[in-house]
């Protein structure tokens, strides 16, 4: 393990926090605001966080390379601190307008790079049907090439799908940016799909070869 790698205990804590804040808060009957915050004390009382201390939580938030979490420490009383995941929610109570920053058409037209990373095994379905948000609230995109971004695309992605955000916004499909600079789109329809119409190109990650359009 490198000196920069988190300890196994911190990795377990980070995964538990991610599940609680993105997916489990409602199931666990935790109060959650429309911008995704829950009381830190409520999370720390859960068995899922294995008795983590305040120092443990702060360290995990601070050292998370993908900046998954935001800790609200504005109140001098630590018992009133709040915590949230910056994106990746499946909890419907979390509202885009309160959690995220909308991307304007003007911003999108200024050369905004928007990339979705995926794998060869998914490409045939994506090429026919488009990208789908699945169980999450949004489809996730990286705001730049993989070497430049903090979060939004797995480093193991075999394909990069470049999206025309300006065209989508012009057609009434909103895009948003999270605090950790992930681009997000809820798609259209009940399934939350972004049609292939908005794909600029698709390239192989390993060598940059373009496979769509071909």
Strand line-up in the sheet with most strands? 4-9-10-7
- Tally of separate helices: 7
Structural class: alpha+beta
Low-confidence stretches: none
| CATH class type of the largest domain | Alpha Beta
Major sheet summary line: 4 strands, antiparallel
Distance between the termini: 42 Å
Proportion of strand residues: 15-25%
| Average residue pLDDT | 94
| Element string (H = helix, E = strand) | HEHHEEHEHEHEEEHEEEEE
Q: Using DSSP, what is the number of strands?
A: 13
Helix percent band: 25-40%
Question: Any idea of the CATH topology of the largest domain?
Answer: ADP-ribosylation fold
The appropriate CATH architecture of the largest domain is Alpha-Beta Barrel
Whole-number count of domains: 2
Would you summarize the structure shown here?
With 214 residues, this protein is of the alpha+beta class. The protein has helices at 8-24, 40-44, 54-63, 96-99, 105-108, 120-129, 165-170, and strands spanning 38-39, 69-72, 82-85, 101-102, 115-118, 131-132, 139-142, 159-163, 176-177, 182-185, 193-194, 199-204, 210-212.
């Amino acid at each position: 393990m490198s000196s920069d790698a988190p300890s196994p205990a911190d990795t377990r804590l980070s995964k538990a926090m991610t599940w609680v804040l993105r997916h489990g808060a409602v199931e666990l009957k935790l109060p959650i605001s429309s911008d995704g915050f829950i009381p830190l004390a409520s999370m720390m009382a859960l068995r899922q966080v294995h008795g983590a201390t305040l120092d443990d939580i702060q360290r995990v938030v601070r050292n998370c390379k993908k900046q998954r979490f935001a800790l609200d420490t504005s109140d001098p009383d630590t018992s009133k601190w709040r915590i949230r995941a910056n994106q990746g929610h499946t909890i419907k109570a979390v509202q885009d307008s309160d959690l995220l920053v909308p991307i304007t058409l003007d911003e999108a037209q200024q050369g905004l790079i928007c990339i979705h990373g995926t794998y060869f095994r998914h490409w045939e379905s994506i090429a026919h049907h488009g990208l789908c948000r699945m169980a999450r609230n949004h489809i996730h995109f990286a705001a730049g090439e993989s070497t430049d971004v903090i979060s939004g695309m797995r480093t193991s992605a075999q394909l990069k799908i470049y999206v025309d955000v300006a065209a989508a916004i012009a057609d009434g499909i909103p895009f948003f940016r999270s605090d950790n600079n992930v681009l997000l789109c809820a798609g259209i329809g009940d399934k939350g799909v972004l049609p292939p119409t908005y794909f600029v190109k698709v390239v192989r990650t390993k060598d940059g070869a373009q496979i769509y359009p071909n």
